[in-house]
Design a protein that fits this description.
The complex is a heterodimer of chains A (297) and B (306). Chain A is mainly α and 297 residues long. Chain A has a single domain, classed as MetI-like fold (Orthogonal Bundle), CATH 1.10.3720.10. In chain A, 73% of the residues lie in helices and 2% in strands. In chain A, a hairpin with a 6-residue loop joins strand 1 and strand 2. Chain A is globular, with a radius of gyration of 24 Å. Chain B has 306 residues and is mainly α. Chain B has one domain: MetI-like (MetI-like fold, Orthogonal Bundle), CATH 1.10.3720.10. In chain B, helix 13 packs across helix 17. Classes of the chains: A mainly alpha (297), B mainly alpha (306).
Amino acid sequence: MLRKRSYFDSKRLPYLLILPQILVTVTFFYWPAVQGLAQSFMLSDPFGLHSRFVLFDNYVRLFKDPLYLRSIVITLTFSASTAALAITTGLLLATLANRVFQFKNIIRTFLIWPYAVAPAISGILWLFLLHPSFGVVAIAIKKYLGVDWNPVLRGSDAMVMVIMASSWKQISYNFVFFMAGMQAIPKSLIEAAAMDGAGPFRRFWTITLPLLSPTLFFVTVMNIIFSFFETFGIIHTVTQGGPGGATNILVYKVYQDGFIGLNLGSSSAQSILLMALIITITLLQFKYVEKKVQYTG
Amino acid sequence: MVEKTPILDALTYLLLMLGILVVCFPIIYTIIAATLPMEEVSKVPMPLIPGDQFWVNIQAAWNQGDLGTQLFNSFIMASGITIGKIVVSLLGAFSIVYFDYRFRTVAFVTVFCTLMLPVEVRILPTYEMAANLFGPLQHVWDWLHLNALLSWFTDHDIEVTLDWSLLDSYTGLILPLVASATCTFLFRQFFLTVPEELCEAAKMDGASPMVFFRKILLPLSKTNIAALVVIEFVYGWNQYLWPLLITTNPKMTTAVIGLKNLIPSPEDPPDWHIAMAGALLVMLPPILVVLFMQRWFVKGLVEREK
């Protein structure tokens, strides 16, 4: 851990200063996590009056439950598509914006603001755009692609709808990071490559993209976390996990099983699995960041 | 750029314009829909020329959705989370960086283990916690059989239940989201870059730690604070799952949640113009914050990566 050389001396003050943070963290992170862990080993009735210790039963049952396994597949499809779409679009726009000299700030402003739109509102906007009878995009899809577009009835259409709403919201975030990443690349490298006869596309593949890889890695992680967790609002406003569970991603299933189905044990076990996933991702990221530090210095 | 590539440059501008159009299309479309009367909105396809019903629709959305109350709640929640997070993490980072005490590393690890754990993965237990903040104390109380002890001691049957519910309250909306390792981490990183000499000089001049914090550290952190204000305000305003769980009273819910009531269901008349007017109203505050504080926002967002 990095340290300062000079410190203030005080017996009580540092504890007093850190106290609020520790209190909130313990009350709303650690205690709930422990409770969740305990509950995931219990089988309780819906009113929480009786519970019985069942060890790993909840977990075993989850992995035998075709609905849960389906939800895993749905989540992976959803987050991979959302991340891929949002990252490629963000990268493309950042590359283009980095090439121009005029109107740079105006262009940035126009591309940044969707960041501020709540996922749930992004869901509402796309619900309207892709509405089977009024939506302008839906009409275009029907007319030019010849698809019988109906997200209310067809699962795959509903999936496309939530992917659109989620990735649209995430483009700005990715754009900001890629812009910052590209501006950090030394101009001299690009100029040297140009003098050696490398064209703009070649320079992008051989210089910009490799030097951008730490940013790309970070953005990918953040996009996956976003589509795993923060898209709850989109699912809740747009499809409620339907039709027929076709967009029932893992986070939504935790909510449905826990708060609507009142299956506390199973919902807790699902929460614990998601927590484990997040912790793994965080550790992986730290490991990678450490490596990056070693490379540069 | 480096060489002259007129065709590629023209193509770049063209593609950029197209990109901006695609990214902005949903909002442009929303604005147009919000200005039209119902007959026009439900036309197939909807006309792309704005109408004159904007204020009528805004008013309808305001009244139907009780947006006045809910926007106020959203504002309280977003500001509460922003201020709470920044104050808590400024103090926490100050303690971790500028003092040397026995539990420093423990405190550091305790806080940073929660770095990436969003509310979404721990909803059920956190909800139970908020439903009764004294839950853990109650466990201890029951475990020690203090009720029996108290009854024996006073010679009466006394049943003490510790109950403090945060449901349907501003505290409940704000407090669980104030715990943020990310802000603390950012301030810690920043404090570590502050020159050692400043602290030494302050000590030599006999300044107490809190004077140093107020007079030197706080003014230096101004840009970082500004950046976090933008990010956390947007984060707080756009919360969905937590307010959905913790509020049952429509008077206590936030605008983003309340907006769902304006979406016409298949049985209702297609009041999409009102839904879109409502959506515009609710997304406006965070957009304005981001646009007006763009410089700090971009800086803050990118700094979080480090």
